[in-house]
Design a protein that fits this description.
This protein is of the alpha+beta class. Helix content is about 15%, strand content about 30%. It is built from five helices and nine strands; from the N terminus they run H-E-E-E-E-E-H-H-E-E-E-H-H-E. The strands form two sheets. The chain has a five-stranded antiparallel β-sheet with strand order 2-9-8-5-6. The chain has a four-stranded antiparallel β-sheet with strand order 1-3-4-7.
């Protein structure tokens, strides 16, 4: 759970910074916090897109980093899920608005996109879960493209949920902390980079991207 520990510590540091900022301080001294909300929808790879009832996502951005909170439903009991954060630093260079899949995985030189791990969970009987995470501005842990976060307040940010299938106990750590964990190589999207496809230990499950929230900041 090393990766999750990093993100939880970052999240706590960000919250601590906001709490320690006295409400009596001059307005100009207070850190800028940009809050954006987004609906949670099914992922386009699963067919017709629809909004997940009772789900929602929030994004908080400061000059130090980004924090997301993704609350959702319609998950399967006993399955492992991971959240992946895609940061499109130059959304004005996307082919469409909002940006789409090709802008995140094949047009990255123009869109200056980064993708990295956000969170991982094992779902219980209520089939509802919350994903949370923090990413610092600049370099991010184990990036797909090595770009990092260069435009926190202007980036278009996606949080995408990957279903790793039923828990395989001997692969639990890999499934909760990597993109490939528990997945057959055949089930990984072909356009994804080798950094994603080699991340984790392969397994017997056909994994799939199932949900997404798109934060269009400043709109």
């Amino acid at each position: 759970m090393y990766r999750r520990t990093i993100f939880v510590l970052g999240l706590l540091l960000m919250l601590l910074m906001l709490v320690l900022t006295s409400p009596l301080s001059a307005k100009s001294d207070m850190p800028k916090v940009q809050h954006t909300t987004a609906a949670v929808s099914t992922h386009p790879s699963q067919g017709d897109v629809r909004v997940i009832e009772g789900a929602h996502a929030d994004l908080y951005v400061t000059e130090d980093g980004i924090m997301f909170d993704f609350q959702t439903a319609e998950l399967e009991e006993g399955h492992v899920y991971t959240a992946w954060v895609a940061i499109v630093n130059n959304p004005e260079n996307c082919a469409s608005t909002p940006c789409a899949g090709p802008d995140l995985v094949t047009n990255t030189n123009n869109t200056n996109t980064e993708i990295t791990y956000g969170d991982g969970i094992l779902v219980g009987a209520d089939k509802r879960m919350e994903f949370t995470g923090f990413l610092p501005v600049g370099d991010v842990p184990e990036p797909w493209y090595g770009v990092g976060i260069t435009n926190p307040f202007g980036a278009q940010i996606f949080v995408v949920i990957n279903d790793h299938g039923p828990l395989v106990p001997e692969l639990a750590t890999s499934m909760l902390n990597s993109y490939r964990g528990g997945c057959t190589d055949e089930s990984l999207p072909k356009p994804f980079p080798d950094t994603a496809k080699s991340d984790g230990e392969a397994g017997p499950n056909a994994c799939r991207l199932i949900q997404v929230a798109v934060f269009q900041q400043g709109q």
